[in-house]
Design a protein that fits this description.
Blueprint: E1 6-10, E2 14-18, E3 25-31, H1 41-50, E4 55-59, E5 76-77, H2 78-90, E6 94-103, H3 105-119, E7 128-132, E8 140-141, H4 145-148, E9 159-163, E10 165-166, E11 189-194, H5 203-214, E12 220-224, H6 233-251
Length: about 250
Amino acid sequence: MPLKIVRRLIPDWGTTYGPPGDGPFPAVMILHGSEGAWSGWSHRNAAILAAHGFLAFPFGYSSGGNAWNAGSIVDVPLDRTVEALAALRAYRFAGPKTGIYGVSRGAEHVLLLVSLMLRDGVEGVPEALAAHSPPDVVCGAFDARRWRDAGDPGWQSWDPGHRAWSWRGSTEGLLPTTPIAIEAYEGPLFLSHGTADRVWSVDMTRRLAERLHRHGRTPEIHYYEGQDHIPGSAAENEHHEHLIAFLERNLAP
């Protein structure tokens, strides 16, 4: 039986998942959350998109990590994501339009990255953005080892004392609680959030939506009633239906 999903390598950058054949296929970069690149969740999400006709590229941006500790979000250079996005655009199996999809810290990554690209006039801004459980502000660093290691009385999910991101070699302007100026983006934007999220409050997405509407933007927004940070099976199926329809509308030829 021929494979319905095939892996293809972008030299120097990593693997993609997509349909068989020569393409080109609508391309989507996938950004993981605080679970880290080695956890495999972004590869699982890539396989779901690949099964629906997309060339999906799970880009691992977390710092360090291995099979037992999946990587941390500390001083992550957002410039490298710009380079990876350019490599995906140039890949011969990628179609003319490229999107980015991020979950949780990956959603923050999507919104922050694009806001900085627009602010500084960087080429290659994606044609569509999707963010599930996003914050409306820059958040602090996250070291996954603190979750595992016992005896840390001051543990919290993100550390406001350290910077998660850097841009052009600097963390200036990326202080935690700084609003993410995604209202500068004029393209199609998908936002979603569970209303019972115990990790990042749904109020973050509501504030983000309110700010976008004040600036005349019309994002597609989905709230999943009673769902936590990770939706249950039925809600996740609903989420993927919305997400895939959004990406098809905005990225397919």
